[in-house]
């Protein structure tokens, strides 16, 4: 088996900060390898070093001379004056050059050159190449091939660069976050393309379904060590957990042994001359092992959020058009408590515009948006990062709040909050300019969440975030006691978080789908099968129509729902008053006991009433 890439003792520093130090690994023919590491570990820098665009401080990389290589950078470097077609065909690959020579010979009407070009086209089987190119461009939604690169968005440039790589059909693909800025349809196409392709692949991606279905080996870069897993993402998760448990057990054993050896080392001075040199050296080795950072279980962070009132957010017949493109056409919806909605749709379908309308920064052409008095929005925008490069991480957070109120009397300092979102104390005093793109996005996420909103709007929060951060964010959102709207192309993330989907179907139409993204894809595939099989479709239509029934609240249930909202509000106020008095430190012990008992009673009553409220409100929102 040919080794396509060899990395030996590679190190790269940014000032005193080590991005990676002394790492080694290889990629061989036929392997489809992904690298997983935290933001700031230098993944993109490593990719640039492999491609020869940067130099390492120590070590070396070797690429096979006998294979063609295609490298997709996270932020592609394209000539702004080129057209889309010129950028896509800007290659030295033999196949593309053969097609270019053939087309040039046709233009010049030179029979001798044309004959040689036709012969070469036959040898390389290049006659269907134009068709393959058009298929790739179409799948990546590249239609205006004469548009200049300088007029494209970041996502469009990424797609043109990806088309350029795939058209060339290299033996070895090196891809840095290939799914960023692609919509779900394109991601699924690329996933199937790479799954079937016979190329060798080395990539960095945070898309966990992509990892699971495309890769057969995963490299994890952690603490300047490469861990290898011969399997897909599911296998990686299983074996990584086993590795962490084994490492923690080893550290615990080392700590216990070191306590014994330390006691031995501290014996009276006259005994030191008789100490075994081997045992002394072994004690220092144990000290080094025992001092290693123990990998702890993830911290559970539950932020109660500001109280939600009876009215959340009501959308009444809103319409919006941008030029000739209709974004919304008389759309209405009434949000319920604790609802988590995912939004999916093609790029350019107006998802971000709708989010801006909900928060009031963009006005609808017609209709109204009625926001409840208790609603406090937390809005994470795609383009919301505006930090001063010279500011320190901790200062940015402290400018917002020194202490974060988690609810129920719990508080967290700015430093503790940063630590939860994977900014350890030694990085909290770094300047923003030293952060990677993913770390800046993580910091921006912290500034949104720490304001304690009760209605979160997250527009592509998963872009550029590493898998560890995504897991933290997912756990945060699962325990979030408020409403959330999420726009994301990360299918794994959507499946874990959302209750149902708003599907932007085009022409201003939005479908409210009751399920997560995988449920939706299964439904779409079933519909496509029915379209291909008319007999099955006709048989399926009538039963589905007969089953359609919407349960409505009875008169007594409506009155019960109204009373529950009043009761819950009063109980929350009483609970807050008790917590304030208990935390004041001014109450005598006898009164504290009584208040603690009442506090426990209120929590039990609230749980029952909120559960019943949820049951009734779910029926109410089906209307």
Kindly state the mean pLDDT as a whole number? 82
Level-2 CATH architecture of the largest domain: 3-Layer(aba) Sandwich
Quick one: biggest sheet? 6 strands, mixed
CATH superfamily of the largest domain: P-loop containing nucleotide triphosphate hydrolases
N-to-C terminal Cα separation, in Å?
62 Å
- What is the CATH class name of the largest domain? Alpha Beta
How many beta-strand elements? Answer: 20
Considering DSSP H and I runs of 4 or more, what fraction of the residues is helical? 40-55%
- The largest sheet has its strands arranged as 5-6-7-3-8-9
CATH topology of the largest domain: Rossmann fold
Strand content: 15-25%
If you compute it from the alpha carbons, what radius of gyration comes out, rounded to the nearest whole angstrom?
30 Å
Overall number of domains: 5
Q: Any idea what the shape is?
A: globular
| SS element count, helices | 20
**Spans of at least 5 consecutive residues with low confidence:** 294-300, 541-550
Class of secondary structure makeup:
alpha/beta
């Amino acid at each position: 088996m040919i080794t396509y890439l060899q990395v030996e003792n590679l190190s790269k520093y940014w000032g005193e900060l080590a991005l990676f130090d002394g790492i080694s690994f290889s990629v061989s023919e036929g392997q489809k390898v992904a690298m997983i590491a935290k933001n700031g570990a230098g993944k993109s820098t490593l990719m640039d070093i492999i491609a020869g665009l940067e130099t390492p401080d120590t070590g070396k990389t070797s690429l096979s001379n006998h294979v063609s290589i295609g490298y997709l950078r996270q932020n592609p470097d394209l000539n702004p004056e080129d057209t889309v077609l010129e950028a896509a065909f800007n290659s030295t690959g033999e196949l593309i050059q053969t097609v270019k020579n053939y087309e040039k010979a046709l233009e010049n009407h030179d029979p001798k050159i044309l004959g040689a070009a036709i012969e070469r086209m036959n040898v390389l089987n290049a006659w269907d190449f134009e068709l393959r190119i058009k298929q790739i461009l179409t799948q990546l939604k590249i239609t205006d091939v004469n548009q200049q690169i300088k007029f494209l968005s970041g996502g469009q440039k990424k797609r043109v660069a990806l088309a350029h790589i795939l058209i060339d059909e290299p033996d070895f693909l090196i891809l840095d976050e290939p799914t960023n800025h692609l919509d779900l349809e394109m991601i699924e196409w690329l996933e199937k393309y790479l799954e079937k392709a016979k190329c060798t692949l080395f990539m960095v991606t945070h898309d966990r379904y992509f990892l699971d279905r495309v890769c057969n080996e995963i490299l994890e870069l952690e603490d300047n060590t490469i861990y290898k897993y011969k399997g897909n993402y599911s296998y990686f998760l299983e074996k990584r957990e086993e590795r962490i448990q084994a490492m923690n057990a080893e550290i615990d054993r080392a700590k216990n042994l070191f306590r014994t050896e330390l006691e031995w080392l501290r014996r009276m001075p006259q005994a030191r001359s008789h100490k075994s040199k081997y045992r002394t050296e072994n004690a220092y080795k144990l000290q080094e092992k025992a001092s290693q950072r123990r990998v702890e279980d993830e911290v559970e962070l539950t932020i109660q959020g500001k109280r939600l009132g009876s009215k959340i957010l009501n959308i009444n017949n809103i319409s919006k058009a941008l030029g000739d493109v209709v974004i919304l056409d008389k759309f209405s919806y009434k949000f319920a408590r604790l609802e988590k909605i995912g939004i999916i749709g093609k790029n350019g379908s107006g998802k971000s515009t709708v989010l801006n309308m909900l928060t009031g920064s963009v006005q609808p052409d017609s209709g109204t948006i009625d926001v409840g008095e208790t609603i406090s929005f937390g809005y994470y925008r795609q383009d919301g990062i505006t930090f001063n490069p010279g500011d320190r991480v901790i200062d940015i957070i402290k400018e917002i709040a020194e202490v974060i109120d988690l609810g129920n009397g719990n508080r967290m300092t700015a430093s503790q909050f940063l630590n939860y979102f994977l900014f350890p104390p030694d990085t909290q005093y770094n300047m923003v300019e030293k952060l990677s793109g993913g770390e800046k996005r993580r910091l921006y996420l912290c500034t949104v969440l720490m304001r304690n909103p009760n209605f979160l709007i997250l527009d592509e929060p998963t872009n550029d975030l590493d898998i560890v951060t995504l897991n933290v964010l997912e756990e945060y959102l699962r325990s979030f006691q408020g409403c959330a709207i999420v726009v994301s192309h990360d299918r794994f993330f959507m499946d874990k978080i959302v209750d149902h989907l708003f599907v932007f179907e085009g022409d201003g139409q939005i479908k409210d789908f009751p399920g997560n993204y995988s449920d939706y894809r299964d439904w779409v595939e079933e519909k496509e099968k029915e379209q291909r099989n008319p007999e099955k479709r006709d048989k399926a239509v009538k039963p589905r129509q007969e089953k359609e029934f919407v349960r409505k609240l009875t008169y007594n249930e409506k009155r019960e729902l109204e009373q529950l909202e009043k009761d819950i509000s009063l109980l929350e106020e009483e609970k807050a008053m008790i917590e304030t008095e208990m935390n004041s430190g001014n109450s005598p012990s006898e009164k504290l006991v009584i208040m603690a008992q009442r506090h426990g009673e209120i929590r039990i009553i609230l749980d029952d009433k909120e559960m019943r409220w949820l049951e009734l409100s779910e029926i109410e929102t089906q209307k």
